[in-house]
Write a structure and sequence with these properties.
Strand content: 15-25%
CATH superfamily: Vaccinia Virus protein VP39
Distance between the termini: 29 Å
Number of strands: 10
CATH class: Alpha Beta
CATH architecture: 3-Layer(aba) Sandwich
Largest sheet: 8 strands, mixed
Order of helices and strands: HEEHHHEHEHEHEHEHEEHE
Radius of gyration: 17 Å
Helix content: 25-40%
CATH topology: Rossmann fold
Strand order of the largest sheet: 5-4-1-6-7-9-8-10
Shape: globular
């Protein structure tokens, strides 16, 4: 099924959670000189104009990135959230918030000459948007109109000393939870050094628990888990929170992200909360 287009949800609270984590992770990794292969399995578009009719239809960015934008002068400059907000501001066309960067932009703006970035996008229209948008680099960026989970498997092992993967499907198909768990287990076996970030939604149905159970059964270790909630799961439908799994996070990244997300949660919603743990199988 290829119905999902992220433009309808761009800049929502889950995007902020995910991309703040990705931003801090990439900054930590690029602090060392050795080359990195970055792989984005579900790239979407590189940039989302907030005035676009799709984004305006639901207006989810108003409860996400727009809240942080209004708070930006109150955020400590040297903090991870402050650095992320400064980078966000640099990507606007002027002094106002007019666009939201997708993961290809967050990854692309950090690329060094020795790094490589592979962007997978299966949706034909989304891939056309991605192909038409300029990236900070052209020589070391590859765009592929293909299934990202299958493509990731085919790319292993990579030629660079280090590997960083972002996995964040829409989860519109229930089977995607199992597919993500199987893919992460595969990467853990084939590239034990790989740093992998997995995003998942927190929904009342709790389907992410099945994914965690599969990872537990597969024996996937070195997982740090972060869950940010903006409301209670009171309804039968609707995302009430956002989850991240990070395998092999760099040294002290868990502490930096714990502080960043604890700061972020109440800025996104009154009563917003964050919790994290080194996940060892207890769900």
């Amino acid at each position: 099924m290829l119905a999902y287009q992220h433009a309808y949800h761009a800049g929502n609270f889950a995007d902020v959670h995910k991309h703040l984590g990705l931003f801090a992770l990439v900054r930590s990794l690029t602090g060392k000189a050795s080359a990195i292969s970055f792989i984005d399995t579900h790239a979407g578009r590189g940039l989302y104009p907030l005035a676009a009719k799709e984004t305006q239809k639901l207006g989810e960015y108003r409860e996400g990135v727009e809240r942080i934008w209004r708070e930006r002068r109150k955020i400590p400059v040297g903090s991870p959230l402050g650095e992320w907000t400064a980078s966000l501001a640099a990507q606007q066309s002027g002094a106002e918030l007019d666009c939201y960067p997708g993961s290809p932009t967050w990854l692309g703006e950090a690329l060094r000459p020795q790094d490589r970035l592979t962007l997978f996008e299966l949706h034909p229209a989304e891939h056309r948007f991605l192909a038409d948008q300029a990236m900070p680099s052209t020589n070391n960026v590859t765009r592929r109109h293909a299934d990202g989970l299958k493509g990731l498997r085919q790319l292993l092992p990579v030629s660079t000393p280090r590997l960083c993967v972002l996995i964040d499907p829409s989860y519109e198909r229930k089977a995607e939870y199992d597919e993500v768990a199987e893919t992460l287990a595969f990467v853990a076996r084939k590239a034990r050094h790989a740093v992998v970030m997995v995003w998942y939604p927190l929904l009342p149905a709790g389907r992410h628990r099945g994914m965690l159970e599969r990872l537990q059964t597969a024996g996937v270790d070195k997982l740090w888990r972060s869950e940010l909630s903006v409301r209670a799961p009171a309804a039968e439908r609707g995302m009430f929170g956002s989850g991240l799994l990070v395998r092999n996070p760099p040294w002290q990244l868990d502490q930096r992200l714990e502080a960043a997300f604890t700061d972020l949660a109440p800025r996104l919603a009154e009563g917003g909360t964050h919790r994290s743990e080194w996940w060892t199988g207890e769900i």
